[in-house]
Amino acid sequence: MSAFDYDLFVIGAGSGGVRASRVAASYGARVAVAEEHRVGGTCVIRGCVPKKLLVYGAHFAEDLKDARHFGWDVPDCHFDWDRLRDNVLAEVTRLEGLYGQTLDNHKVMVFRSRATVVGPQKVRLADGQEISAERILIATGGWPFVPEFPGSEHAITSNEVFHLEKLPKRIVIAGGGYIANEFAGIFNEFGSKVTIVNRGDTILRGYDEQIRDRLLQISMTKGIDFKFNAPFQSIEKNDDGTLAVHLENCDAIIADAVMIATGRTPNTKGLGLEDAGVALDAHGAVKVDETNQSSVPSIYAVGDVTNRIQLTPVAIREGQAFADSVFGGKPTVVDYHNVPSAVFSHPPIGAVGMTEAEARNKLGSIRTYTSDFRAMKNVLAGRNERALYKMIVNAATDQVVGLHMIGPDAPEILQAAAVAVKAGLTKADFDATVALHPSMAEELVLLK
To answer: Which domain holds residue 176?
Structure first.
């Protein structure tokens, strides 16, 4: 008999934690999970899934107008925020049930409680119960970062945005990353007046400069206002419930809601990790090696809490690799090279590999190919919005080292193209592929 209550105790039932739990259990491990919020984690409950459903809803604003150019007699339509919000939250609840069912089917014990680490092989639940485990996995994800300034308590984050009682007529969104730009597009399509406030002078750091400049241009054309180099000074709540947003270097803005989207930090506060000897970095992330093992041999971590790449599919890969390595006898290391990413803005962005600047710094000699075009649908609909595809090629080897796209369905197209970049295919390989016509994707094999 084991000296421990469980072979594995997982803190956090998000994407990484659930994958690690069920795979470890399938190998015969006795597994328990503690989740203080809702099973499913950030992605399912308050992240990519409900956000993508709002993105779908927002697209109808333009689609309904464009349909008239395609022969459909579409009357002026009214948008009902309450109906969409409630339908999205109902879908989230359905998915939460499926995640819980998956854990139940694999005989994983779920504690609906906060858990903290009190030793290398022991955790404590909120009710004081202590549980021992041979190994502990930290999978608590990240949490929205809200800078401290007077009135910051009046702002919401991506956690609360899905529960708004009513659609704000005017919303200020702080930040320049993917969350800020995605929700700017969503609320703008729903009819809100959107202002993005950025303390710096660049949106979407880490993405190719031409692509992010194109999004900025299109967003401004759609009516989104941008305030750069404008840190928050304060937020005041007026008697009528509106908010006065005071910024450096520009006039105050009156809004009905303020959303802080200035990044996410590893969710390790109060978990007891440092007391247990687990090393954290300056941002609070759990330091792990390539096997996901922390400085304490019995404690591991996967997902956003490690602050490596904050993407749900990466957390799932890490959870799988952990379970395969530790309980399946199949040592596995996650490959972080050429991980594709997307921004579900309006229009969306897809990217994989090096940007032009990164490639020049690392490789020196490169070739770039671009296609700047209007999608066929936009032409007939009378929209001047243009897509931009960009390919980065190592001049010495002809290998495609980066693909960057902005335009309709860019993430859907990029997923397949990312396989080619990951496989190390060359520009000649793309050129040798017959185009699929008429499609937007064909531009990838016609770049000159």
So the answer is: 152-262
Model pLDDT for residues 232-288, shown as the tens digit of each residue: 999 999 999 999 999 998 999 999 999 999 999 999 999 999 999 999 999 999 999
**Residues 173 and 117 both lie in one domain:** no
Domain assignment present for 106: yes
Which CATH number is 385's domain given?
3.30.390.30
Question: Across the strands, what pairs with 110?
Answer: 33
Q: Which residue stretches of the chain have pLDDT < 50?
A: none
Last residue of a domain, one of 292, 326, 360: 326
3-state secondary structure the chain: CCCCCEEEEEECCCHHHHHHHHHHHHCCCCEEEECCCCCCHHHHHHCHHHHHHHHHHHHHHHHHHHHHHHCCCCCCCCCCHHHHHHHHHHHHHHHHHHHHHHHHHCCCEEECCCEEEEECCEEEECCCCEEEEEEEEECCCEEECCCCCCCHHHCECCCCHHHCCCCCCEEEEECCCHHHHHHHHHHHHCCCEEEEECCCCCCCCCCCHHHHHHHHHHHHHCCCEEECCCCEEEEEECCCCCEEEEECCCCCEEECEEEECCCEEECCCCCCCCCCCCCECCCCCECCCCCCECCCCCEEECHHHHCCCCCHHHHHHHHHHHHHHHCCCCCCCCCCCCCCEEECCCCCEEEEECCHHHHHHHHCCEEEEEEEECCHHHHHHCCCCCEEEEEEEECCCCEEEEEEEECCCHHHHHHHHHHHHHCCCEHHHHHCCCCCCCCCHHHHHCCC
82-135 pLDDT, tens digit per residue, is 999 999 999 999 999 999 999 999 999 999 999 999 999 999 999 999 999 999
Q: Specify the number of domains making up the chain.
A: 3
Q: Which residues are catalytic?
A: 437
